[in-house]
Design brief:
Layout (H helix, E strand, L loop, with lengths): L3 H16 L4 H8 L3 H7 L13 H11 L12 H6 L8 E5 L18 E5 L12 E6 L9 E4 L19 E6 L8 E5 L7 E8 L2 E5 L9 E3 L4 E12 L1
Antiparallel strand pairs: 1-10, 2-3, 4-5, 5-10, 6-7, 6-10, 7-8, 8-9
Helix pairs in contact: 2-3
Length: 239
């Protein structure tokens, strides 16, 4: 079984080398930790006193470095994540995500083939402009304000069920602030600008957002602690 802590350690080394000039001291300053704390996180598993990178620290690192949520757990090459660019290739097919609330599109919908933006997973701060990473043809008819995100990390991957979102899938997002049970949505936590994908669930225990990966450690987020900003309308997968 793959060691997630080792993957995070290696990924943190890559982020240090690309974003902090390869210096532990620069990484420590960005994250707000001591140099020794960073050094211990980068030690291999056989070193006594090593600091494993847990879930809270993952979120703290990704937020401090301004990288997409899921970066430390993703299997995508680090340069792909940092560039977060891509084109819909000829051997890819758009797969509409069947949800019980697929609302009718506006009359001014973007037709298939219309160029729409690929955004980063970071919401703009204040009145700042959203970072456009690329322009990609709409794979299907879409909301006029639709945009793409590229899935990063395994939190929504469950090969035993559909829908399942794999690392690297392109996600077509329709802006939305509400959803109904079963919808796949994009949300942010209070005080954060990092968006996350989840599925909205309503049952006897309440309303919450869950990761599709049953082994994901942060599997449940109460809806009261989240703000929905979009609905995942389709994914672009490679066959």
């Amino acid at each position: 079984m793959e060691n997630r802590y080792e993957r995070r350690r290696v990924r943190l080394l890559e982020l240090r080398d690309r974003l902090c000039d390869g210096r532990n001291s620069s990484l420590a300053k960005r994250i707000g930790k001591s140099d020794s704390y960073i050094t211990r996180m980068l030690w291999t598993d056989d070193r006594e006193g090593r600091k494993r990178i847990g879930e809270d620290m993952v979120a703290e690192i990704e937020h401090a470095l301004g990288v997409p949520t899921g970066t430390l757990d993703s299997k995508l090459p680090i340069d792909t994540i940092l560039a977060n660019r891509g084109q819909v290739e000829k051997d890819q097919t758009a797969k509409l995500l069947a949800t019980p609330t697929a609302a009718p599109l506006a009359a001014s919908s973007a037709e298939a083939g219309t160029m729409i933006p690929l955004y980063s997973w970071q919401l703009p701060k204040g009145k700042g402009a959203w970072e456009v990473l690329d322009w990609i043809p709409a794979a299907v008819t879409a909301d006029p304000n639709a945009y793409y995100l590229r899935m990063i990390g395994p939190c929504m991957h469950n090969p035993a069920v559909e829908p399942s979102l794999a690392d690297g899938d392109l996600l077509l997002i329709h802006p939305a602030t509400t959803a109904k049970p079963g919808d796949l949505v994009i949300f942010v936590r209070p005080g954060s600008h990092s968006m996350c994908p989840r599925q909205l669930v309503v049952d006897s225990s309440g309303q919450y957002l869950r990761a599709l990966n049953p082994s994901w450690p942060e599997g449940i987020t109460p809806l009261a602690k989240a703000r929905i900003v979009g609905r995942i309308a389709a994914k672009v997968v490679r066959y």
